[in-house]
Design goal:
single chain, alpha/beta, 6-stranded mixed beta sheet, 5-stranded parallel beta sheet, 10 helices, elongated
């Protein structure tokens, strides 16, 4: 192909519908797949144990002349012409290394750091504006204000038939001062990354713990939280038997949405405006 040809450059660990749609949108482009040599350039790619061998991936796409595998030694010569890259961390770093100005296409193909940190709306959630639902979300916000966690304050309130059963906020163990005396393990992580590395009990988990301690059931109750739950709390909510989850804030890891859907827990966004 000529130097002015359109080229689609990407990392292709697996073949799925997202990649298929991307390739269809750029059916007029030469496809350049990152080879295994880029594992040395981007060490995170070594962890992708599901990844196809790049040559095998290229063969599945039809092989030359439209599809070829490139290695670091092929650069920057192979990256001439009009370039298109998926908007993800590896592609942006590659473009930066070689002073390239490709057209970045915003499309989800795999989890990388920016997508893991993305605060996305919950696609399956309904919306409520009733004063009663707003009241309980404000109650949850009041609980959140009691948290000493500088990183993230979350409150949760369990309700059945208009009656508050339990309420809690995220707090640390063995004391509220633990992260400030010993150092907070969250300091080296941005929101959404390794949520398990924390000395805190999440507000949702604290509500469930209170019910277990006091000996009452939360099955069929509703849970009001100030932010969409992390995946671990979503699993706990599903196992507890809550009927509905009311929330206002987004969360950067939304694996919990699928967990709640599978358990028939209805997510509902509480609109506090208007």
């Amino acid at each position: 192909m000529s130097g002015s040809a359109k080229r689609l450059v990407l990392y292709l660990p697996v073949l799925h519908a997202g990649y298929e749609r991307l390739l269809e949108r750029h059916g007029d482009a030469e496809v350049l797949l990152l080879g295994r040599g880029f594992h040395e350039v981007f060490p995170a790619l070594r962890k992708d144990i599901r990844a196809l061998d790049p040559a095998r991936a290229a063969a599945y796409l039809g092989g030359p002349p439209r599809v070829r595998v490139i290695e670091p030694e092929d650069l920057p010569g192979a990256l001439a012409g009009d370039l298109v890259m998926p908007d993800e961390e590896v592609m942006r770093e590659l473009a930066g290394r070689y002073g390239l100005e490709p057209a970045f296409e915003r499309t989800f193909l795999r989890w990388d750091r920016p997508w893991s940190l993305e605060e996305a709306p919950v696609g399956s959630a309904g919306i409520t504006r009733t004063e009663l639902d707003r009241h309980f979300i404000r109650e949850a916000r009041g609980q959140a204000g009691r948290s000493s966690d500088w990183w993230r304050q979350v409150g949760a309130v369990a309700v059945r038939d208009g009656e508050v059963l339990a309420e809690a906020y995220n707090r640390h163990h063995p004391s509220e001062y633990s992260p400030y005396v010993d150092g907070d393990p969250r300091n080296e992580f941005r929101r959404g990354l390794r949520a398990d590395l924390s000395t805190a009990i999440h507000a949702e988990a604290a509500v469930v713990a209170e019910a277990a301690r006091e000996g009452f059931s939360l099955r069929g109750a509703d849970l009001y939280v100030t932010a969409f739950p992390c995946p671990a709390c979503a699993r706990l909510i599903a196992e507890t038997g809550f009927r509905r989850l009311y929330f206002t804030g987004t969360y950067s890891v939304l694996d919990g949405e699928g967990v709640l859907k599978a358990a028939n827990v209805e997510p509902v966004w509480v609109d506090l405006n208007g």
